[in-house]
Amino acid sequence: MAEALGDLNLSTRKLALVLNGAAGKKDAHANEDKIRAALSPHVREFVSYRVQNGSEIAQAAKRAAREGADVVLALGGDGTQSAVAGALVGSDVIMAVLPGGTFNYFARELGVGETLDAALATLISGQLRRIDVGDVNGRTFLNNASFGVYPEILERREAVYQRWGRSRIAAYWSVLLTLWDMRAPMQLKLTLDGKTGQYRTPLAFAARSAYQLESLGLEGAEAVRSGQMALFLAKGHRPRPLIAAAFRLAFGKVARGQDFELLIADEILIETRQPRRLLAFDGEKERATGPFRLRVQRAALTVIVPAAVSENTVVPVAGATAA
Fold this sequence. Notes:
The protein has helices at 25-39, 57-66, 78-88, 105-110, 116-125, 149-164, 168-181, 210-215, 221-225, 239-250, and strands at residues 3-7, 14-20, 45-51, 71-76, 94-99, 127-136, 139-141, 144-148, 186-192, 195-201, 203-207, 229-234, 260-265, 267-272, 276-281, 284-289, 292-305. By secondary structure, the chain is of the alpha+beta class. The longest helix has 16 residues, at 149-164.
């Protein structure tokens, strides 16, 4: 559910850019110069905050807000955008999105453009909307929160990248290696809107991005647009059927009932036998302690979207992904 707030007047705003200086020093410097040149003529004040790694992005965004920034933006992928959103959620500070990752699902869902130039043009002429985001125990997410084998894939992928370099082939290989080595599925106790059940699955992911669900050929987009949480549970319990399901997902051929079970609820409580688990939020992994309460924070984040976008186009954001 999106709430229109009207036009954006940048000339009265202080704008803060959060930039990861370690992500290719030459590119970072060039991008900062380009962003500053494009936006400075349109804003009251332009400041930038350099960080040395991705873990510092959220703190830099919070600092920018404390120091009076009206708009905070970062160039990066969904993990970067998720960190900024978590720092600004529940406040009046505006978030602007500059896509700089591989999939950029959040930027694509908002319709801000898939290139830096397009996103800068959107920022200059855009309008404001308040959108929903996902939440797990106070941790904001924009595309998905995943439990089980997917966070393990991300961990394996880092090791593969370190040995063979970053490539799509290396990413796919990490998926196959992790699924093939999988031993036992998770035992979950789920409470959905007050109803409790026991489930056995190797993968659970909570989806809050209608755009992403539709791009992957998955159901649940309308429930997400209505402000609910969509929880997918993988049905395969052994490596071979899981690998087959992964290939079907890659080609948009997954089938509800055959490959996954879809549960829809306003709020979900997940309890596991091992309360401390590795989770993935928007493609970034971290350890967290359960039980895990998943909910939707309504109209909790103010973002900039294209002026021409209709209210029905911008949907509640945060959900499932292959990234």
